[in-house]
């Protein structure tokens, strides 16, 4: 298994152990090869299992992708909702939201890459469920920006567009982040938190 899958507790709720091993193997395979180029044999092999064993836990390859997507999106949404509901003014809450969201995408960039960029492979009903979670994600950040505008702390005439820009900036970290690179997840989070405040027109008082 990859270090990311072993070290994080993001799949702790996936049981039994064999099912969890298959999920972490699928994350690695999808991130490396893409969903469509990955076979169930690839996934089973990475998990040290036979292809037949995979079907005991997941009926299809798409079901594996759905499980990864739903867990990842729920984790990301929880991060943003905690920041939205935290103490402090809009600037503090937006900074925390972006800092935490970016850090998650950097620390779990392999998982995040699958979660954010393989949506098109989901079945229609699964896709609809994930899109609803993404709307909730947008709403959590938009609520903070709206609070900042109402309080006179933020100067942005287009709250929906700015919210989308902030989220897009954060999510893109999963595409380029390299654990061997010059910046740590915390450093990227701090940088992006500052950029987000600039994007909403925050002026320190």
From TrEMBL:
Keywords recorded for this protein, A-Z: DNA-binding
Cross-referenced InterPro entries: Homeodomain-like_sf, HTH-type_TetR-like_transc_reg, HTH_TetR, KstR2_TetR_C, Tet_transcr_reg_TetR-rel_C_sf
Domain HTH tetR-type positions: 16-76
Domain of life: Bacteria
Cited Pfam families: TetR_C_24, TetR_N
DNA-binding region residue numbers: 39-58
Name under which the protein is recorded: TetR/AcrR family transcriptional regulator
